[in-house]
Design brief:
The complex is a heterodimer of chains A (145) and B (155). With 145 residues, chain A is mainly beta. Chain A has one helix and ten strands. The chains are: A mainly beta (145), B mainly beta (155). The complex binds zinc ion.
Chain lengths: 145, 155
């Protein structure tokens, strides 16, 4: 009897779909149109939007169009894996969209050069050609030229 | 400017690719399955019999004794009838998934119970393994196709 351990490739997979509320649904619809939206709250415009303000529980207000530029407030460098938004190493980052409160989580492309990443850097959205109304309609954020 | 047409649902697929490493102890069990053998191991410290056996007792951490074979006859310990279709399902519902208490083992095996109407399955029902044909034997629990009621046994 050999003492070697057996191993095998294994995949866990489930094709979940989730329903979204009216505010997030409109935000996603905006992404499909290559436009970014936030939602009004007592504290300011929240992006990405939520249906309810997490601090007060109050229903959030009207949707407002935003610019697609922002500032990196936090980030972590990762090697690219299959299924990731970029084919080379990149950063996952929290991005404060200009004029909003909150933080949008997305990939930042600096051409695989770790040294070009910094907190406070200015970035803008790069839109995908084929958009379906989801977060991946933004391919990633890139350095503001 | 008017607002965009809202999206009502979004795809949120979950997928994780990884490598399952059986471990030395579990591999003994899996290699046994490829030979139509159910290999159990006893703990020298607390006498618990594991099927499938790991390398060490999870109660007292003793290294388990040498593997020995069980015949696979057992009883349904608990079960559920799967009625719900889901993506990737390989068996048409309804079907029965059960914990099988194999005689001589202190732990239970999860497996299918077939060759019986789901509504006739009972806790305590005597069952036996149905092994795969030779060309389908492998180092996995797929070497047992399912368990079935022991013919002539009282449930
Ligand atoms: Zn023990």
């Amino acid at each position: 009897m050999t003492a070697e351990s057996l191993s095998a490739p294994y995949t866990v997979e489930f094709p979940f779909e989730r329903t979204v509320g009216p505010k997030i649904g409109t935000f996603l619809g905006g992404l499909r149109d290559a436009r970014l939206y936030g939602v009004r709250t007592e504290r300011g415009v929240l992006c990405p939007p939520l249906e309810f303000d997490p601090r007060t529980g109050a229903e959030t207000g009207a949707l407002v169009p935003l610019v697609t530029t922002g500032t990196v407030t936090s980030w972590t460098w990762v090697p690219s894996r299959p299924g990731d938004p970029l084919p080379h190493d990149f950063a996952w980052a929290l991005i404060a969209i200009d004029g909003t409160i909150g933080a949008l989580f997305h990939a930042v492309d600096v051409g695989g050069e770790f040294a070009r990443m910094s907190t406070g850097m200015r970035v803008c959205a790069r839109w995908r050609q084929d958009r379906i109304g989801g977060m991946r309609d933004i391919e990633c954020f890139e350095v503001v030229p | 400017m008017s607002l965009p047409e809202p999206v009502t649902t979004m795809a949120s697929p979950f997928r994780m690719d990884y490598t399952y490493v059986a471990g030395v102890g579990r591999s003994v069990f899996l290699r046994g399955l490829a030979e139509r053998r159910l290999l159990a191991r006893r703990c020298p410290g607390c006498a618990q019999v594991y099927l499938p056996p790991p390398e060490f007792c999870s109660r007292c951490l003793s290294e388990l004794e040498a593997p020995f074979e069980l015949d696979g006859l057992g009883a349904v310990s608990t079960f559920c009838v799967v009625n719900f279709p889901f993506p990737g399902q390989t068996i048409e519902p309804p079907y029965v998934v059960a914990y099988i208490q194999v005689h001589g083992a202190g732990t239970r095996l999860m497996h299918l119970v077939r060759e019986v109407e789901p509504e006739r399955v009972r806790i305590g029902m005597a069952v036996e393994p149905v092994w795969a044909p030779d060309d389908q034997l492998t180092t996995s629990l797929k070497s047992i196709q399912h368990f079935r009621p022991v013919r002539g046994a009282d449930a």
